[in-house]
Amino acid sequence: MAVHAAPLTGSIDFGGLFQGVDGSGTNVRLADAVAVDFCANVVGNCVTGAGGAFTVDAVSTGSNMPVSVGDVGTIQDFNFAAFAGPIANFFTVGGLSFDLSAITAT
Questions:
Q1: Half-sphere exposure of residue 45, counting CA atoms within 13 Å on the CB side?
Q2: Residue 21 domain boundaries
């Protein structure tokens, strides 16, 4: 049995909160950070933990992606100084799920 998938087209804009953290998990400015801690809430004070949330702010006209404005997704925290990937389900929203296999910190 052959299976085919249509390519995704379009773009999404999303927003949420995050903090830079050092090796001990203390909040620091991004220039001193070794990791990103995404916040569990998308507005207000940052509540940290294992991963975070974001909201979809815009979806491009003609997009065939299974997301809508206002959808809430999840994103996983990660260490970019000593990346230990891949991270399965790094970014999920609606019917989309992406893994993070590598990162280049500049």
A1: 1
A2: 12-81
Residue 76 in this model has a pLDDT that exceeds 70: yes
What is d(CA 106, CA 89) in angstroms, rounded to the nearest whole number?
Answer: 24
> Number of H helices and number of E strands within the chain?
0, 9
pTM of the model: 0.81
The count of structural domains within the chain is 1
101 DSSP assignment: -
In a domain, 31, yes or no: yes
**Is residue 54 within 8 Å of 72, Cβ to Cβ?**
yes
Would residue 89 count as lying in a domain? Answer: no
Planar angle of CA 68, 56, 32, nearest 5 degrees:
160
pLDDT-derived band at 75, boundaries 50, 70, 90: very high
| SS3 state at 42 | coil
Q: 38, 77 in Cβ contact below 8 A? A: yes
| pLDDT band of 3, cuts 50, 70, 90 | low
Residue 4 placed within a domain: no
